[in-house]
Design brief:
three-stranded parallel sheet
């Protein structure tokens, strides 16, 4: 694998993989670690309000399975519905991780569909950036909102492909392309990936990476699916860089030349 092709730079740090993975929904920490190893991911996201990384002494600690010396821990605000809750949660995460600035912001608007509340997301992003956080932000696939987040100073913008946990894949590739074409910071698909082909399509569109959790954790074989996702992201990136052939809806172009055939 050409590591230069597949490397991803976020907030000045370069990673070998363009696949980011979540740490929830596995049967135990051992399965979590096995799946993440198979995925090749170096950035792993942790829901501060749902997973213990030291805030509950005496309970199993995820950081024992995924030590910060081996992985970049990305604290996130899953389960937050207001800017205030999100900011407070990430302040706690930074404290638990010894001043770690990189974080994932998500402020949800509805407990059923988990669609982002964009006014609250923008409000939280402004506060966090001013406090020195390096904010990767979950958002709607809205080019205007995505640009506002970049202008605030977010280090990566992460539009949803479809609803969190839905596995519906990329339902609006046109909006994603508008965001990709307009932004200078990395654009990563976040939410909605269901299988390997969804991840490939995201990278083929020009996304800089993809973050997923449920697609791996809820697969029949999470470790095998993690391996498939690793290959899918790599294939999508290579296909994007290679440049696909033009579509020709009404003309045939045989792979083998027809000139010089016997009898022609």
């Amino acid at each position: 694998m050409n590591t230069e092709i597949h490397s991803l730079t976020i907030a000045g740090r370069t990673y070998r993989s363009r696949l980011l993975v979540g740490t929830g929904k596995y049967k135990d920490f051992a399965e979590t670690r096995a799946a993440i190893d198979a995925s090749g991911a170096e950035i792993v996201t942790v829901a501060i309000r749902r997973v213990n990384i030291g805030q509950n002494p005496g309970e199993p600690n995820l950081l024992d399975a995924l030590p910060p010396s081996q992985f970049t821990i990305l604290p996130n605000t899953a389960g937050c519905f207001t800017a205030d809750d999100a900011v407070r949660t990430l302040r706690l995460g930074r404290e638990l991780l010894g001043g770690h600035a990189l974080c994932k912001l998500e402020v949800l608007g509805d407990p059923k569909n988990l669609f982002p509340n964009m006014p609250e997301t923008l409000k939280a992003a402004e506060i966090l950036v001013k406090e020195g956080f390096q904010v990767m932000v979950y958002c709607a696939d809205d080019p205007i909102q995505a640009k506002l987040l970049e202008d605030i100073g977010c280090v990566a913008v992460m539009p949803l492909a479809s609803l969190i946990g839905s596995g519906m894949g990329i339902v609006n590739p046109w909006n994603l392309r508008l965001i990709i074409d307009d932004l200078k910071v990395p654009v990563l698909v976040d939410a909605g990936v269901g299988t390997a082909s969804d991840a490939t399509i995201a990278l083929e569109l020009g996304c800089d990476g993809v973050l997923m959790n449920t697609a791996i954790a809820h697969a029949r074989d999470p470790v095998l699916m993690a391996s498939a996702m690793k290959k899918a992201v790599e294939a999508g990136r290579e296909a994007f860089l290679a440049g696909r052939m033009a579509r020709k809806y009404y003309s045939a172009d045989p792979s083998s030349p027809t000139s010089g055939l016997i009898g022609s």
